[in-house]
Write a structure and sequence with these properties.
By secondary structure, the chain is an alpha/beta fold. The chain contains nine helices and seven strands; from the N terminus they run ααβαβαβαβαβααβαβ. It has a seven-stranded mixed beta sheet, with helices on both faces.
Length: 227
C-alpha cells in the first residue's frame, strides 16, 4: 500500500479536490454490497481518504477503516470515520474477537508486495459466512494486452502485481475463501459520458475490441464450517 509520500505527492491535492467523484463511486460500490449484505460490521482495508467508509457508515454499517498512510487516515478521520492508521493485522490485534460481516478492498490488492499475506489476514477477520468484496484492474483485459505499460491499469510506479481472473481466484481459494462471484467488467461505472463516448468512437474507428473489461470485481465468502 502507498506510503505517505506517494499519497501526498501523487494523490493529495487532486484526491481531495475530486471528493464528489469518490463519494459517487463509493455509493455505487455500496449498492453492489447491499444486494448481498444489508448491514453488520464492515471493515474497509486500504480506506484511503475515507469516502467509502463514510458512505457505509451513513448507510448503517458498523464501519471500521484501516489505512496505513497517516496523511490519508487523517483525511478520513475528518469525515467522522473510525480509522486505524496501520495494518490490518494491527487492527485485528486491537479488536480481538471482532469479526467482519463484510471486508471491502477497492484497488488495494494490486499495491501490496504480499497479496497472499494480505488475503490471509482478510480471511482471518471475516466471520464464518461473511463476505470479502474487492475490485482490482484486470490484467487479462484487451486494453492491457493492446497497450501494455501504457494502459491506465498498469501504473508500474505503484502497482506491484496485476491479476487475471484465474490468478485472483487461485489466490482467494488458497487462503480458504470460496469465490461466490468473479466478474470481468468495463470501467464504464467510473467513466463520464463524454470520455466513454470518445473512447468508444476511437475503438470503432481503429478497430480494436470494445468494450474492454478493465476491472475485476469479486465476492468471496468464508465458509460457514470454518471455526
Amino acid at each position: 500500500m502507498e506510503s505517505d509520500g506517494i499519497w501526498v505527492g501523487q494523490y493529495g491535492g487532486q484526491r481531495l479536490a475530486r471528493r464528489p467523484v469518490w463519494f459517487a463511486e463509493a455509493r455505487q460500490r455500496l449498492d453492489w454490497i447491499l444486494l448481498r449484505q444489508p448491514d453488520g460490521v464492515l471493515v474497509e482495508v486500504g480506506a484511503g481518504t475515507g469516502e467509502f467508509a463514510k458512505v457505509a457508515l451513513d448507510a448503517g454499517f458498523d464501519t471500521y477503516a484501516v489505512e496505513p498512510s497517516l496523511w490519508a487516515a487523517h483525511q478520513a478521520q475528518g469525515l467522522g470515520v473510525r480509522v486505524h492508521a496501520g495494518t490490518l493485522e494491527e487492527w485485528a490485534h486491537t479488536h480481538a474477537g471482532l469479526h467482519a460481516d463484510v471486508v471491502a478492498m477497492w484497488h488495494v490488492l494490486e499495491h501490496t508486495p504480499d497479496p497472499h499475506g494480505l488475503m490471509g489476514a482478510v480471511a482471518a477477520v471475516t466471520r464464518p459466512g461473511g463476505l470479502v468484496v474487492l475490485e482490482v484492474p484486470n490484467g487479462a483485459s484487451s486494453e492491457c494486452e493492446r497497450l501494455g505499460v501504457q494502459w491506465d491499469g498498469t501504473q508500474p510506479d505503484d502497482h506491484v502485481i496485476l491479476f487475471s481472473p484465474e490468478g485472483l481466484r487461485l489466490l482467494t481459494e488458497s487462503v480458504g475463501l470460496e469465490v461466490v462471484e468473479l466478474m470481468e467488467i468495463p470501467d464504464r461505472l467510473y467513466s463520464g459520458g463524454d470520455s466513454w463516448r470518445r473512447r468508444r468512437n476511437s475503438a470503432l474507428v481503429e478497430g480494436y475490441a470494445w468494450p474492454p473489461k478493465d476491472l475485476l470485481r469479486m465476492v468471496a465468502r468464508r465458509p460457514v464450517h470454518q471455526a
